[in-house]
Amino acid sequence: MATFDQAWLSGRETPNPLKATPLYLVDDMASAKRRFSAMGFELTTLQPTVQNSEFGDVLNDGCVGMSAGQTQIILVEETHAKRTMPPEVLPSFKHGPALYVWVDSVDETRSKIADPVIAEMVTGYGTWELFVESRIGLIIFAEKLSQEMKMAS
């Protein structure tokens, strides 16, 4: 029987993650922020924000970052997820948090994983996201795009 790593990688090289952060889907942002604040987490991304990026202004309501020491988390309100994520990935959150993983290249990462890709998208805030259903749950691989790459997609 193959080990988890062997099944996941299917004999391929290991992907090169830059940073991985748990992403929690919450139904009540205020309550979730209070719970994590009580555990020592502090807001690192305030809600709502407007990101003035090269891709235009993006209202980022319903999504915050929090940290405690070296640990970071992302909280995403369910209504925000329904507006900004492919609908086929939302049921995956019923099994627990997703893992949001920054990578140098989504294409390169895709070639190194054996788990099924359930969706992918280019976001309004300039990332290419690959949604993968793995044995450990939903993994979202994200690559920051340049303006030229966004226009080509």
Q: What keywords describe this structure?
A:
153 residues, alpha+beta, 2,3-Dihydroxybiphenyl 1,2-Dioxygenase, domain 1, eight-stranded mixed β-sheet, two-stranded antiparallel sheet, disordered N terminus
Distance between the termini: 40 Å
Helix content: 10-25%
Assign the CATH architecture. Answer: Roll
The CATH class is identified as Alpha Beta
Indicate the radius of gyration in whole angstroms. Answer: 16 Å
Structural class by helix and strand composition: alpha+beta
Number of domains: 1
Low-confidence stretches: 1-9, 53-57
Strand content: 35-45%
Spatial strand arrangement across the major sheet: 2-5-6-1-7-10-9-8
Sheet with the most strands, sense and barrel status: 8 strands, mixed
Q: Could you give me the name of the CATH homologous superfamily?
A: 2,3-Dihydroxybiphenyl 1,2-Dioxygenase, domain 1
Word description of this protein:
Strand 8 (117-122) and strand 9 form a beta hairpin. The chain has an eight-stranded mixed beta sheet with strand order 2-5-6-1-7-10-9-8. Strands 3-4 form a two-stranded antiparallel sheet. The longest helix is centred in the N-terminal third of the chain and has 10 residues, at 29-38. The protein is built from five helices and ten strands. It is an alpha+beta fold and 153 residues long. The chain is 24% helix and 40% strand. Residues 1-9 and 53-57 have low confidence and may be disordered. The protein has one domain (17-152): 2,3-Dihydroxybiphenyl 1,2-Dioxygenase, domain 1.
